[in-house]
Structures
1.
Amino acid sequence: MESDELILQVDPHLTFSVNAQIKEQLKWLIGTGRIQPGDRLPSANQLADSLGINRNTVNLVYTQLRDEGLLDMHKGRGTEVRSGAKIDRLRSDREPMSRLAEKTVEEAERMGIDPTAFFTAGLAYILLRDTGASSRVRLLFVECRQHDHPFYRREIERVMGGDVRTVFLEDLPADSGRIADLLAQTDLVVTTLNHAEETKELFGRYDRKVLVIGATVEAAALLDIARLEAGSSVGFVCLGRAGGEWMAGRVRDAGIAHIRAESVGLDEGERLESCLANADKVYASGAVFDELKARAADKVELYPMKLEMSSESLLEEWAASAGPGGRPRENGGR
């Protein structure tokens, strides 16, 4: 699809934000195959101009879709749709939805019901119908954009089964009034060892429990790295360089010191290209693995993270103590 063929719409009268409208339309187009892997999207300026909105809104949407593993953003090359398992899952989800939506719209129009009004009211119906929603723990996960935040989010959801919302430290200045708004919809704040002190400082003043969790690497991967020849050049790549440094740090902690480690972020264009070209082996976090494997299949391996057992136990204990409203019984989680 050429970038000038992309036609989206925004309706300021809808109860959904413009950000959500654009994001969901793009996911729909990708999920139904109208936008294919490898297709380049319009620049933020182009799409913003065509919709009559601020370019920062489009940048935010593109960044969110990148963080979900659906887009790649490269300076000088633009924004492209990824390929891989996440796109495949989106396709498998959206295709049956598309068939059902077409039938529903046809039936609504046959009955003289405005489809937009129907689907907006349908959201209210779903929220009211979901009687179990009030018992789900509402979790706020705080991390930075540099680390593999999708991994932590998946693990929190797996262990606790709650509704997890991710917020990035870069978006939370110390004087932000947004923190109080976030906490009004949150039962528990979870962060990682990487940012425990920062998060506690930001949220501690609100008398809200902050759970700190950590991760490590699978032992099998450490054994493979230990078997590499002395002096081997090994790249550790995550969403940002800080994430790559964390990965390399776990290898050093295991006593592996005979390799030459380089920490790189996905956002470091030329440095990343050099690493892919010159390293003997590259270990990629789950958040960047699909992209790097497609670019250098012969040398890229997955860096298999896992939640620390103590962290998993901590989350399980808090979930077990939570009452029907998602808060610990008798403040047992404080």
2.
Amino acid sequence: MKLYTRTGDEGKTSVIGGRLSKDDIRVEAYGTTDELNSFVGQAVTQLDKELFSDILAELEKIQHELFDCGGDLAMLKVSEERPYKAKQDIVDFLEERIDVYIKEAPELERFILPGGSAAAATLHVCRTVTRRAERLVTKLHQQAQTNPIVLKYLNRLSDYFFAIARVVNARLQVKDVEYERSALVFRGGKRKEDK
């Protein structure tokens, strides 16, 4: 198998159902999802297998789901023969895990700076790349047919990465660094305006 095909030499790439310019918003969206998957892989290498066995299993699951989401985003037209892969259950799972992890981490009152331990810092990178992917998918969703579950999933996934970054620091006994000019914006894990 050759890794290079020369078919993209003029700035076009193949997607499911046709070809697009490499700077098309659809290509940006699934490309950013692929970038995110690479950062998740980096985070996996920074987590101790015993202390974080639960999180590691979830991150591997998420890497497979990100591949599914990327495939859905690369699909120009859905059909019975080629349905979307991402389903509501992947969103439900993230919500369940977020609820568990929010209880494990210390109570949050102020905004925090990304960081603490190396693994938590990488998970915060995952969170921000997820937000960028979400913005691109939102733009794509306004212009073309997409799987709406992907947009919901990315929205929950950024919250998940925030939650586990805090849990990673807590298990490693590394304190989150509060943003020093932050007002008291959280109470019992929720933002003031959400109460």
3.
Amino acid sequence: MEAKLLQTIRAQLITSESFHPFGQVIIASSDHRPFGLKDAQLQLQNGIPHFYIMRLHQRGRKFHQITRHQLCTQCLGSLEGKEWLLAVAPPSQAALPRLEDVVAFRIPGNCFIKLEVGTWHAGPYFDDPWVDFYNLELSDTNLVDHDTCSLLEHYGVECELV
């Protein structure tokens, strides 16, 4: 099925406040600061944590699928200070995200993000030929906790990040 409509989504620069409905933005802090609410609040108790570096190759800025993980949080960050883009929709009990709730963020390479359990996400997207990302999720997340919605099938839409 081909897209009936191309919806553009303008990516905004991420801030802790703007990203709050979807998760956390984690920035550098003092080494001796005690653990607190500005640290990643992880939920990894449903399995074996998997922390790894994944190399992704540039694939444009268009997408027609959005995914969520309902058993764990997920942390993503680029290596080498490279900026990247991510589209998100808030977690909900609904089977599908609301198309009007999908927003996008530009994420600088000096921070990482933690996605709340159930946050819909598409990406990472970037303009470099490839980018290495560190990823923290569960060891079987992509096998047993990968709920994907086809925006093309359900809404007749393909999205493009600008």
